[in-house]
Amino acid sequence: MPPDLGQGGCSALGDGVILARCLADVLLENSTCQRRLDSENEDEYRRTKKGLDNYAEKRTWRVFDLICTGYMLGWIQEYLYKIVYFEPKFARKGTTKMEVNADIVIVGAGISGLATALALHRLGIKSLVLESSNVLRAAGITITAWTNAWRVLDALGIADSLRQQHGQIFGGDDEVRCLKRKALLEALAKDLPSGTIRYSSKVVSIEESGFSKLVHLDNGSTLKTKVLIGCDGVNSVVTKWLGFNKPTLLGRSAIRGCAYYVDGHSFEPKFDVLVGNGVRFGVVPCDHYAVYWFLTGSLSAQGNSTLQENQLKLKQFVLNKLGKVSDHIRAVVEDTKVEEIACASLGYRPPLEVLFGNISKDNVSVAGDACHLMTPDLAQGGCLALEDGIVLARCLADALLENEDEYKYERIKHGLNNYAEKRRWRAVDLIYTGCMLGWIQESEWFGVRYLREKLLSHYLSELPLKKADFDPKQLVL
Ligand SMILES: Cc1cc2nc3c(=O)[nH]c(=O)nc-3n(C[C@H](O)[C@H](O)[C@H](O)COP(=O)(O)OP(=O)(O)OC[C@H]3O[C@@H](n4cnc5c(N)ncnc54)[C@H](O)[C@@H]3O)c2cc1C
């Protein structure tokens, strides 16, 4: 029967009891306590048939009643309800719609979403994070965290535990460490009040509702919020709502892997980067046991999609591209288990779109990759997502806690606008510089190779450190 009355299982329980009763009545007929199944076959058959007939009679009308009522109820609720209440088209049949209010909703529990939620929490502001997966998604194995990221992690109060787990790659004034993504996400999530992250909550659409926004989830439920922040990565629903196009793909890919050594590895704590042969290859130790490597370049000659799906072929592709490198470096790739190798197509949000697009509109804004997807050439996408979290939380807190005579909606709008203006040029700078750096490093043109190897080599190697040195005054709570 349809599930509208919620009676299928209950009715099955009833069937069991009544069927047993009817059978028992006929089988034990004319007997006190003794089973009569051992009596003559014909008699036994006649009595069993009578018992089952009796059961069928007793249940037929009951079941007929429940099936018809359930069917009618479902029809009335789903179809007549639509006529009377103009049911929104995204609501799914058979699901319960509930509307929950939350002052600030953040879409996505990645680096930017969690950093924003934690920064708001440190400022005494509650938020709700909606995450489509059923656990924290740590895609990408590791992330290089540069000086700017450490300033943010210090401001959030979670840097020290991460420092203890990951060795430093550069000394001096700069702080660079290769972090396990899972450790970073867990550290960001750990200090959030329980219930802040709601898993298995995929946002499918957004709707205006007066001064609020309605956020519709794929399970049919709806949340009403005064502030909506999209931290939902490359294919962001919020960015689309703000009017941005899909990110531009560049025909380049990144292959990444991590080799684990149970007895520890012998790599020095430094970033080794090799360029040539149309690719850029890098190796960096993550902790005492794990060494991370990556290769970026165009895989088109191999047929992007076939190669991306086959981890063994990816490993072979990387080994072939390495050419003559030291055995030590080659061994890292050889020692990597194929299941630890991943490949991603690279894209970016065109700088002009970031410069002139709606990073914020009314009470909606975006952060992280959703706002400024960039190529990994500067390894700054995640660090910038952390910066966003602090700056956004600060702007929102300033707006909410000051000018209380102004309407709240207007204050939120100003706060998010302020955030957008602070981030626009920073994001444009890093997207543009990353793209240029990638192009120069992977180009095989003679002129570009000459520039890269003879004139610009020092400047290019210093560039990531320079870009990571972002104004510390903006990264405090
Ligand atoms: C090859 C490569 C190497 C990189 N290396 C570095 C590096 O060394 N250093 C660095 O700083 N950066 C690096 N980056 C960039 C970095 O990975 C990203 O910038 C960073 O992960 C962005 O974080 P985010 O939170 O904005 O997005 P994401 O990490 O993509 O998180 C988005 C979250 O939103 C969730 N979500 C998506 N859609 C929905 C929805 N509709 N509803 C609810 N939830 C949703 C997702 O499940 C996910 O959890 C690299 C990127 C690549 C591709």
Can you characterise this structure?
This protein has 477 residues and is α+β, with helices and mostly antiparallel strands. It has 3 domains: 3-85; 101-137 and 179-244 and 350-438 and 445-475, FAD/NAD(P)-binding domain; 249-347, D-Amino Acid Oxidase, Chain A, domain 2. The chain is 47% helix and 20% strand. It has 16 helices and 16 strands. The chain has helices spanning 8-27, 41-85, 111-122, 147-156, 159-165, 181-190, 237-241, 304-309, 311-322, 327-334, 351-356, 369-372, 381-401, 408-442, 446-455, 457-468; strands at residues 99-107, 128-130, 142-145, 168-170, 176-180, 197-198, 203-209, 212-217, 222-230, 248-260, 272-276, 279-285, 290-297, 341-348, 360-361, 364-366. Strands 1, 2, 6, 7, 8, 9, 15 and 16 form an 8-stranded mixed beta sheet that branches. Strands 11-12-13-10-14 form a 5-stranded antiparallel beta sheet, sandwiched between helices. The protein has a 3-stranded antiparallel beta sheet with strand order 3-5-4. The chain is globular. The protein starts with 7 loop residues before the first helix and ends in a 9-residue tail after the last helix. Residues 32-37 and 81-96 have low confidence and may be disordered. The structure holds flavin-adenine dinucleotide (FAD). The site of flavin-adenine dinucleotide has 34 residues, from α3, β3, β10, α12 and α13.
